[in-house]
């Protein structure tokens, strides 16, 4: 499983955090949205974890670009500022799920495991 992450790059230690049962997980991180786009353009990812509040473009714009370049990539959106409108927009664009901060690591593990077998 190939995972690209922007949302968790500073908040979660990776060892043992993002794994799927019986699936090797390779995690690539991006320090900004442009770097994430560059990674997406270079190789296919099974999963992307994005924060809605990103710099220099926001996570919704990055979600749109990811789905344009790689429609099969599953995308988990994370936000500390949840609204019904942003949730609906993300899901309409193609996000697989929408999680809120503070992030429940067990919930994230469950989401990643479920998406790995989907």
Structural class: alpha/beta
CATH topology: Rossmann fold
Number of domains: 1
Radius of gyration from CA coordinates: 13 Å
CATH architecture name: 3-Layer(aba) Sandwich
Count the strands?
A: 5
- Poorly predicted runs are 8-22
- What do we call the CATH homologous superfamily? Response regulator
Enumerate how many helices there are, as a single number.
4
Strand order of the largest sheet: 2-1-3-4-5
**Biggest pleated sheet:** 5 strands, parallel
Q: How are the SSEs ordered, and which strands pair?
A:
Blueprint: E1 2-5, E2 26-29, H1 33-42, E3 47-51, H2 59-69, E4 74-79, H3 84-93, E5 97-100, H4 105-117
Parallel strand pairs: 1-2, 1-3, 3-4, 4-5
Would you give an account of this structure?
The chain has 118 residues and is an alpha/beta fold. Helices cover 37% and strands 19% of the residues. It has one domain: Rossmann fold. It is built from four helices and five strands. Strands 2-1-3-4-5 form a five-stranded parallel β-sheet, with helices on both faces. Helix 3 (84-93) links the parallel strand 4 and strand 5 (97-100). Helix 1 runs parallel beside helix 2. Residues 8-22 have low confidence and may be disordered.
Features:
alpha/beta, Rossmann fold, globular, 37% helix, 19% strand, 5-stranded parallel beta sheet
Compact summary:
This protein has 4 helices and 5 strands; from the N terminus they run E-E-H-E-H-E-H-E-H. By secondary structure, the protein is α/β, with parallel strands linked by helices.
């Amino acid at each position: 499983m190939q995972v690209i992450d922007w949302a968790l790059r500073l908040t979660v230690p990776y060892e043992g955090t993002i794994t799927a049962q019986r699936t090797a997980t390779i995690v690539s991180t991006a320090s900004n949205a442009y770097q994430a786009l560059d990674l997406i353009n270079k190789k296919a990812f099974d999963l992307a974890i994005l924060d809605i509040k990103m710099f220099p473009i926001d996570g919704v714009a990055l979600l749109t670009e990811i789905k344009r370049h790689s429609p099969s990539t599953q995308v988990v959106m994370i936000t500390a500022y949840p609204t019904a409108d942003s949730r609906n927009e993300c899901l309409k664009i193609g996000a697989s799920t929408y999680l809120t901060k503070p992030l429940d690591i067990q919930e994230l593990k469950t989401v990643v495991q479920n998406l790995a077998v989907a």
